[in-house]
Amino acid sequence: MKICVGLSGGVDSSVAALLLKRQGYDVFAMFMQNWHDADATLHGDCEWEEDKFVAEMVARKIGIPFYFVDLSKQYRQRVVDYMFDEYEKGRTPNPDVLCNREIKFDAFLEVARKMGADMVATGHYCRKEEIPGPDGKPVYRILEGVDPGKDQSYFLCQLSQEQLSKALFPIGDLLKSEVRAIAKEADLPSADKKDSQGICFVGKVDLPTFLQQKLRSVEGDVVEIYPAFYGSDRLYQEQCGIVRGLLKEGFEGPLPMISHYISEDKATPVDDLHPLSDEKIASLSDAQLLTLSTPLSYDSVRFETETYRSGRKHVRKTRYRENPFGKIVGRHEGAQFYTIGQRKGLNIGGHKDSIFVIATDIDRNIIYVGEGHSHPGLSRLCLRVAPDEIHWIRPDLAMKEGETRRSRVRIRYRQPLQDATLLCRKDGLFILFDQPQRGITPGQFAVWYAPDGEMTGSGVI
After folding, report:
1. CA angle at residue 91 from 89 to 94, to 5 degrees?
2. What CATH number is given to the structural domain containing 75?
3. Three-state SS for 25?
4. pTM for this entry
5. Which of 4, 200, 382, 424 is catalytic?
């Protein structure tokens, strides 16, 4: 079998190539260039040139042929243009997921097959299994990597069965420490190379600078929303009413509307991790699910001006009238440059706790923020994936309309899997979490897993 390894210059793909070579496969390496413009990178240089140099040395050390392919045109059309379009709409895309679906296992795979490759291998920390399907044909499963701190299955959540049939992940059964040890034992040039960061094949970038290549900066208001808003907002109160009706009989804890999340490795423990009744969840109407999954709007928080006289000379001045639900606390350079849950880059002082973005209004160019991890605007219990955005990695496991299924879900890379209920309805796939989630972001991917760690599907939030 002839295998093409996507050699990136990092230690993971290097060890993947080494292991395949040791196993006796006919292996060749190919480095892909996906980006030319270094203007937006923080280092101010073309990082890909250094990566290519290291990758070529690795191939020489292992003793396999090395090739180079320029896929920058396809990358810009399929990944970067998509990114710009999503941010312009106020959504937050995941370019790494798109890179795998559109480039590594599509454009790159096509080039590799023209060069005689039967399979393409990468250094992803995930596992692939083949099982017989209902019709006797092979079905391919993607499972979490063995290393819980490095599992990268999330980034492969949009792959199809056809793409998986040509994919190999040689290091999915290894820990990162074991991969490093193998690389050092083999004296690979990439053994001590740091893991890459930033946008896939672009490098570590200043995102606003990167986006400003195409999206125009326009100053707008930053509005802080006070907790008092939620006591009078009709949608929020409707959501609270629905959740109250889902509680298990005898449950006495607080209404699960606020996330206990602090960071990926910190959380406040809760007494009942599943306070909702499965039976009551299954009986939810489509209208109730749409209500639960609808993001809150802050359009009603408006600010009126009033005139007053100041100083000894009674100079006439203008100010905003006090609003019990919010206050204008700063300015920003464009709402499209910010994402829900963001804390850095806001430059707003005078608060005891951290300030987070809770919503953006692209049409009015307003950013809404809230103070503290427990701000109600940061948390949501339910999200919806539109019917045309649902992707089943395992089509044989696709849910039918009206079906309900328990699952484990993550809404961002590195997030620990969260217990949830999937409800398939005519308006899409609804994901109702056992506990509220912080920073559910439109444009990101929700990914669901079976109890044994198999990733079965995904969809754009």
Report:
1. 130
2. 3.40.50.620
3. coil
4. 0.90
5. 200
